[in-house]
């Protein structure tokens, strides 16, 4: 019989039975339970000490087992223990009903032994909830993002040569990645997913640019490509008194209806959040607007930039009417300061 079966039989045989109520009976049951626990602990400690002395495990005979139990139990109790041991055979013990834990393992493992993969740590543990903990060592995982991803020296040098823009000017520009999403191109081979990004840049002094780009691997790469395209496609937005637009504007662009109105000094930017970013990059300070219809971000930005770029200027009105630009400005724009 195994050690675990013997301990279970010992607990069931020595469990006190108290009938009725009363403090005396409860105290007797408590004392007998404590005595049984003490005896079982003493027996288990002796068995462990004897097993530690032996180099190889020995087989305990039936007579030795009964003789050892007779030291601690009365003849009546010893008789009940022997009867219980004869009832539980090794076959019944092997066919016993196993426990059903909440998260059972799919295999039977010997938890008394250390597993080299699950039980041994790969790296030293750092408990951040305790103060004065050492800095964890760097991870040996491979770096997916290349270290020179944010290096814009090549793009800046190319723009400086082609467009005549200095690097200091490009570094002072405001960059706003307004749209970042995952898109799919459906082909006969399946869906090809890629990252899409829409970026606007501006110097807060009338110059603004918009760029769109995609990348198959990284969203940050799509942002960098869109930024470089926006730098190449910069144009000027005309402004009245360097703060607002010249007149009311309205544009319908792919289901998006955008309306913009000039406002007096100190009015601020009371517009859609996307139009607000465009106005900040362009240097507009007083503007009112409304977006109706679709709320698509990409179309809202494109409709706004198209309106701001195609404003009707006083010079064009004067040329169409055959008058001087000074008279047109004095008549229509003198009070709007």
TrEMBL record:
Coiled coil: none annotated. PROSITE patterns: S5_DSRBD (PS50881). It is found in: Mitochondrion. GO terms for cellular component: mitochondrial inner membrane; mitochondrial small ribosomal subunit. It comes from the Eukaryota. It holds the Pfam family Ribosomal_S5. This is Small ribosomal subunit protein uS5m. Keywords: Mitochondrion, Ribonucleoprotein, Ribosomal protein.
């Amino acid at each position: 019989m195994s050690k675990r079966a013997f301990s279970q039989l010992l607990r069931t045989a020595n469990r006190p039975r108290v009938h009725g109520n009363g403090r005396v009976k409860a105290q007797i049951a408590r004392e007998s339970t404590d005595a049984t626990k003490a005896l079982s602990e003493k027996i288990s400690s002796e068995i462990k000490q004897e097993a530690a002395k032996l180099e190889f495990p020995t087989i305990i005979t039936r007579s030795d087992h009964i003789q050892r139990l007779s030291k601690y139990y009365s003849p009546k109790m010893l008789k009940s223990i022997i009867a219980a041991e004869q009832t539980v055979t090794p076959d019944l013990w092997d066919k016993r009903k196993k426990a059903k834990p909440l998260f059972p393992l799919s295999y039977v493992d010997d938890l008394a032994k250390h597993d080299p993969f699950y039980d041994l740590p790969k790296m030293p543990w750092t408990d951040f909830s305790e103060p004065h903990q050492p800095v964890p060592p760097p991870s040996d995982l491979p770096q997916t993002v290349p270290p020179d991803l944010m290096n814009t020296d090549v793009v800046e040098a190319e723009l400086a040569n082609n467009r005549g823009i200095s690097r200091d000017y490009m570094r002072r520009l405001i960059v706003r990645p307004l749209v970042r999403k995952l898109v799919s191109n459906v082909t006969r081979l399946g869906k090809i997913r890629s990252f899409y990004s829409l970026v606007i840049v501006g110097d807060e002094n009338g110059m603004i640019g918009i760029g769109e780009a995609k990348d198959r691997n990284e969203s940050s790469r799509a942002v960098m490509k869109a930024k470089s395209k926006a730098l190449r496609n910069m144009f000027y937005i005309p402004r009245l008194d360097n703060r607002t637009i010249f007149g009311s504007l309205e544009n319908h662009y792919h289901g998006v209806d955008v309306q913009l109105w000039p406002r007096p000094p100190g009015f601020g930017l009371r517009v859609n959040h996307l139009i607000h970013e465009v106005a900040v990059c362009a240097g507009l300070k007083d503007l009112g607007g409304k977006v109706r219809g679709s709320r698509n971000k990409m179309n809202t930005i494109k409709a706004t930039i198209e309106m701001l770029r195609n404003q009707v200027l006083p010079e064009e009105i004067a040329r169409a009417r055959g008058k001087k630009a000074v008279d047109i400005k004095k008549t229509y724009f003198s009070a709007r300061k």
